[in-house]
Structure formats: structure tokens, C-alpha cells
Specification:
The chain is α+β, with helices and mostly antiparallel strands and 69 residues long. It has one domain: Alpha-Beta Plaits, CATH 3.30.70.100. The radius of gyration is 10 Å and the shape is globular.
């Protein structure tokens, strides 16, 4: 299982968190998603997760992922 961590600076409310979480959980290979609104940090756990698919999902939710590690 792999883990991706990144920031989503544009998240400001619970709706933002739900939008990001919903899009990310729809990505193939994603097992779980943790979103912390206070720190604006997102952690994605999964196997064979495609980084481009993660970036596209965050973009589809209307946000930008930064500081991916």
C-alpha cells in the first residue's frame, strides 16, 4: 500500500472537504482518504494509485493539489 500526502489550500469548509473526498475515493486503487480542513492536508492510501488520476480528481472537485509527497 502506498501513501500520498499533499495540501489543498483552497479548501475552506466542510463542503470543500466532502467534494475532495468524494472525487478521490472514486479513483481506482484508492482505499481511503483522510482530509484535515485545519491544516488543508490530504492523505490518500491505496495500491497502484496513479498520481495523474489523483491530480485530475482534485481538479475535478475544483481545487489544486500542492506539495505532493
Amino acid at each position: 500500500m502506498s501513501e500520498l500526502r499533499f495540501q489543498v489550500p483552497g479548501m475552506t469548509c466542510g463542503h470543500c472537504v466532502n467534494a475532495v473526498r468524494t472525487e478521490l475515493t472514486g479513483v481506482a486503487g484508492v482505499d481511503s482518504v483522510e482530509v484535515d480542513l485545519d491544516s488543508k492536508q490530504v492523505v490518500v492510501h491505496g495500491s497502484a494509485v496513479d498520481l495523474q488520476a489523483i491530480l485530475a480528481a482534485v481538479d475535478e472537485a475544483g481545487y489544486e493539489a500542492v506539495g505532493i509527497s
